[in-house]
């Protein structure tokens, strides 16, 4: 499926944009047996932290900017605005730096220091909103700034180029890397772009694939995993693609993040650990299943949260 990007063909060397995607798919070795998953199951993690800006959001970020340029909606030098909980903001800051845009990011003030610092390192301007307002307030402010003529909102929550990126790249990669043997796909649900795009692709080539979404249990705050109020449900979300929702607690996600680092050598973010916890719960009920989950980012972005030992 993969082919050399045009710029790489022309020059012999890829650009940073060319190396987004084509991430490894790795097998968990110790945790499935320790947590009682029957033999015959294979649990695989898609290492999206290997992308240049460090997360699965690199794919839709470059897709949204590139496609908006193709439609003539934006051009280099314009100001782009986005509400973000972290990873999309970092990816958009990188993509804006690559393609020559001013990037203004709006995020709740309680999100990790590392993510805010990374956005600024790419040259983005940050507006922090009160913790109590959550992402809903950040999204409202972004829309208000667009109405006031202060820039254009790409809107990851309603932009079809978000799931399209995963339909065209992430899904085909997982299909190819599993040799078509995948039976279950698990993803944390935030903007829902990943689960919608990958789920659509996998079901288009193998309708029997089960798509499972990880959502936070009541009272849990897990960066990157959301259960939206009805008024803020992402417009790109397609519930027909998701066969099952599994609730994961903050404590289970954080414990799984620590265990993955200690027992698998896999240092991941908390939402990735939540998706892994769901994959392992599924595996305890199944036989001869091939379960792939999205490792959406790396653990370095969460060191200041206290989840990992100091």
From TrEMBL:
Any one GO MF annotation of this record: cysteine synthase activity
One Pfam annotation reads: PALP
Keyword list, A-Z: Amino-acid biosynthesis, Cysteine biosynthesis, Pyridoxal phosphate, Transferase
The EC number(s) attached to this protein equal: 2.5.1.47
Matching entries from CDD domains are given as:
CBS_like (cd01561)
Give the domain of life. Answer: Bacteria
Cofactor(s), names only, from the UniProt record: pyridoxal 5'-phosphate
Q: Which residues form a coiled coil?
A: none
Extract the PROSITE patterns matched here: CYS_SYNTHASE (PS00901)
Q: Which InterPro entries match?
A: Cys_synth, Cys_Synth/Cystath_Beta-Synth, CysM, P-phosphate_BS, TrpB-like_PALP, TrpB-like_PALP_sf
Q: Where is the Tryptophan synthase beta chain-like PALP domain?
A: 16-297
Q: Which reaction does it catalyse?
A: O-acetyl-L-serine + hydrogen sulfide = L-cysteine + acetate
Which pathway is this protein engaged in?
Answer: Amino-acid biosynthesis; L-cysteine biosynthesis; L-cysteine from L-serine: step 2/2
The UniProt entry's sequence similarity note says: Belongs to the cysteine synthase/cystathionine beta-synthase family.
Q: What is this protein called?
A: Cysteine synthase
Organism for this UniProt entry: Pseudaquabacterium rugosum
This protein's gene is called: cysM
